[in-house]
Each structure stands twice: as structure tokens, then as C-alpha cells.
Design brief:
23 strands, single chain, N,N-dimethylaniline monooxygenase activity, eight-stranded mixed sheet, FAD/NAD(P)-binding domain, alpha/beta, 19% strand, FAD-bind_Monooxygenase_sf, 14 helices
Amino acid sequence: MAGLTHEHVRVAVIGAGFGGLGAAVRLRRAGITDFVVLERADAVGGAWRDNTYPGCACDVPSHLYSFSFAPNPDWPRNFSGQPHIRAYLERVADTFGLRPHLRFGAEVRSLRWDSGAVHWEVETARGSLTADVVVSATGPLADPRMPDIPGLDGFPGAVFHSARWDHTVDLRGKRVAMIGTGASAIQIVPAIEREVGQLTLFQRTPAWVLPRMDRRISGVERWLHTKVPATRALRRGVLWGIRELQVGAFTKRPGEMRFVERLAGAHMRRAVKDPALRAALTPDYRIGCKRILLSNDYYPALAQPHVDVVPAGLKEVRGTTLVGADGTEAEADVIIFGTGFHVTDVPIAHRVTGARGTTLAEEWKGGMEALRGTTPAGFPNFLTIIGPNTGLGNSSMILVIEAQLAYMADYLRQLDTLGGKVALDARPSAVRAYTDMVQERMRRTVWNTGGCDSWYLDNGRNTTLWPGTTTELRRETRRVDLAEYRVLRPHTGPVKATVSTAGAGRGSR
């Protein structure tokens, strides 16, 4: 495989998941072909390539979980599984001619800003290159988080994370311990329950679970969506609109979530008859504070006689004995961790060194922040896709990605307008003002007031979610406001912007 040494590109995109492929398509549509997509693995797909655990599927409706510019009329189910989503991304790569731009096995080892040359020096597993602009689309669900459990190294059986499923391990008849109760665990538990001998779920915090309104999409519907695209667009629009209307309860009126809690409670009672088990599975925080999970078979699986729920996290491992924080002991042959990802401490941040000689991780030690969720101060011509405070609690992240891609496209247009070797660096004051606005809006959301400790929070601040509708986010990222940036050129330092700054001061407060 050829290396990358001495190559220079206009744009280097990191990651070939939804964000990276979307960026590549947007670049080509803007007439930019001088770019590469650096991917550490050997195929596209991102999280949908890496997560191959039994039962893996999306919890967002299929017709909303796809690019607006690449609709798929042939989704097989309301909530499609991992193989179909990965196949969709492969088709996107082929349809839009992205293959020549893909560089597999090119894990980014370091990014360093060269102020004199006004470009990024990029070191990868396949060699080095330089780039005028870097777009980081590594995603928040890329690197699994494994807890440091005393004695785990001495466990004699198989141990793996849900995002790195070991398909060589035969679970039939085995004593299996599932650690965690997040979105992956509630799919894994019912998928493996019937084949294992004994299943023990270590539950540090119970989750709110609602019914999953899933069904097969009929051939007639798929034919209609193919032949009459307006029906496909209508379906997507309805799905989007319903979720936009739900946002107010999450962000402004958390008390309204009590009705949803009653629905979730009824859903549990239909499947779980044991009062003690129901008590263990009932959360003590407001629904929505943590991600609401969707499943029709999670509770029935937990009610099976060979399934035990330990209402505590895993504290220690002693040989084949697993000890919960409440002292409960369970024997296991296999341990599966569904313990989430490095979301607020993204690994790529440790590899990016900006204009001040500090890494992004150092700049973010007090919490992630970036102007309009995209550009951090001190890191010129560096953009993040699914950056700080761009996550959603109830809708499709593809909507966020497309909003940020619009911002990326205007960013590049501004560079072209300025002309020559030039960079934009977000002003610290602009980043602070934007962050303060977001955090002020976050104060009354269910994520901050709901009484839970979630992965949304970092040092007590919610640095992951967007406290508004996707319509508002699109408005925030519609165009680049040069008043919020310093303009940099080789050796000369900042220069005064000469391009119109129309739209300065916009914001949805």
C-alpha cells in the first residue's frame, strides 16, 4: 500500500464514518477534489463497521438516519440493523466517487499546526502529509471505554467490549456477565439470552425503556418510495417534525416528561411481574436525563429464570467470581463490557497540537468547547464534526452532521474569498460567548436537572448535547461570521478581515 509522504492536500478529513463520508461528499459537491479521507481501519463505516454485536441496530428511524442528499428508499425496517446501515455507507462511498480519496490503514498519530507555513503537519500510520484544512470526523462513539476493575487481568475467560465483539467466543451454555445497561446492552441481552447457560447483568444505573415501534417496511412502501420520491420525503419530514416538537419537553419543560415515565413504567410492568425485579429496574431520575432506550424484548429477557440482575456496578474480579459494588457475587466464563465510549475525552484531542503549542486535550481539560460546535480557539483551520454541544437526545445525528457540513462549506468559501495562504482562528471571546449561551440554555434542560449522572456531563457541565431543535442548530451553523475569527497569513500574524461580516451577533437565545 502506498504511503502518504510529502503529499499536500487542501483538506484532510479524519474518519470514514457518517461524518467523514458526508464531508467528502460535500467537498466534491463544492468542486473541491484535492482532499483525502484518513481512516485507521480497512473499510468505511465508522461505528457501524466496528459494532457487530448480536442485535446491533439503530434507535433512530431509518428514513431519518440517512443523508438528505443520499436517500435510501429500500430500508427493510423502521429501525434498520447494523449490516444494512454499513451497506448504505458503502453505497454512499461508491455513488459519490469517494474511493480515490480514501486512505485506509492511515490512523492519525499526530497533527501539528505550522504557523509559518499556515498548514497542518499530519503524521499517519502510512506516512506524513500536510493539509491547509483538517476536518476531524472521528465521532464520539469511536473508542470504547473499559473500566479499571481490580482483578480483571486475572480472569481466565474471554473479556471484550461490545464495540469489539469477539466472534470466536462461543457463548452457548456459558455463564456470561454483561456489564452496563446502555443502548448496546439492551440489544445484546435479549440477543444472547436464549443461548447462554446463565446471564448476569451488572446494572450500576437502571435505564428508562420505551417500546420500540419497529416493523418490516413492506415491498409496496419501498416500491412507492422508489417510484414516487415525494412519499419518501414526506415520511422523513413527518419523522423529523415529530422529534422537533418533542424538544421543548427535554430543554424547557422537563416536568412534561412525567407522562412519558408512566408509559415506560407500564411497558415494564407488562413484562416484569416480580415486584423486587421491577423495583431494581425502576430509575430514580427523570426520564430523558440519560438517553431513553427502545426495546420490546429487554424486559422479557431479564424476567427469564436463568437471568439475574445485580443492582450495582462491577467492583472486583476474583478468578471466575465477579463481585458487585453491593457485595453480590456471580460466577462467569465470559465478561462483556457495554460501558460506553470516550466521549468527553476523545483520544484524537491528545494528538492535535495547535498554534499555542498545546494539545486540544490540554485546552479542553476544563471541558470541551468550540465555536458553533465546530472550531476551537487556537486551532486554525481545524473543524470538528459532531463537536462539543452538538449531540441530540431524541433525533438523528445525521441532521447535526449536515448542519456542520454546511458550516464547513462556507468556511472553505471564506478562505477562497480571502485568497492566498490563509487561515481562520476562532477568537477566544467568540468561543466563550457561544459556550456561555449554550450553557445558559442548558441550565433548565432535563439533562442538567433530571437528577442523574450521565456521560453527557464533564466536570459538572453538559459539553455534549445541543439544548435546542435541529432547526436552531442549522441556523447557528448556516454561515461563518468572520467577526468571530482572526485571519492569519504566513509570518504576518493576524490581519484585518475584509470580507462582509453580515450576520454578526446571531444566536438563538
